[in-house]
Amino acid sequence: MNIIVNSQKFPHEIGSRLLKLKNSECPFPELKDTWDSIKPLTFKEIARLPNLEQRRVGVVCLGLERLVNEVKPRLISRQNIEKTTNWVNEKGERVEHKFNDIYELYEVDGSYFNEGLDSWQTMRDCYYVKCKDTSTDRTYFIWVDPASVYTTNEDRWFYSLSDCPITAIQAIAWTIQTNVPKGHIKEVLRQGDCILIKPKGKYEPLTAPRHLTEKEYIELLVAES
User: Does position 83 have pLDDT exceeding 90, yes or no?
Assistant: First the structure.
């Protein structure tokens, strides 16, 4: 027997524990008899769910505040960019908008996820960048690969964060990918999760996408909404 949560199918036990995580009161009569004994799913258990969509639904049910309380992240880098961009207001008029864009890079100790796992299953420390949507003010957490972030910005091999530190802005830039080679981007525009890359000059598209660098993010991102 399966339970559907946010349009995603889960085994009965996992689904009922997600519902307990999501709801303060029993949402279905079928669970009423066992509702009080159901234990909400933890983030550690959500992280081990078998597919990406199940993990996404689990994190939505958990919520960012409870996630942070569970994993106890360590702040590595906090940076602010003073931005001036163009918005379209409710009247349909184009207006100049100034704001502070704050990014934070956090580390989560991998041992948090590894309890009870064999050595070959264990996870290394994990990293995420925290940022806000410029139009809705919602907070987002985006997991990043520190080695890839570093090599995207530095022409050197990555060893460890102690030897090869990365910044919050490098991390947020890394989350954007393009097939336009370096030196051929004129502008980057962002509307929510939609990224528009405006190229310049003649170029040969890359066969595999690359990540944006910190320099490109700071200098070429000209409009957000």
Answer: no
Q: Are residues 104 and 214 in the same domain?
A: yes
Tracing tokens 């004994």 back to the chain, one arrives at: 37
What does the pLDDT look like over 169-198, one tens digit per residue?
A: 999 999 999 999 999 999 998 877 788 999
Domain that holds residue 47: 2-62
| Residue among 113, 98, 105 at smallest CA distance from 47 | 113
Are 158 and 52 within one domain?
no
Lowest mean pLDDT segment, chosen from 44-48, 123-127, 197-201: 123-127
Domain end among 41, 62, 83 = 62
> What mean pLDDT is reported for the chain?
87
Strand 177-178 and strand 139-144: the pairing is: unpaired
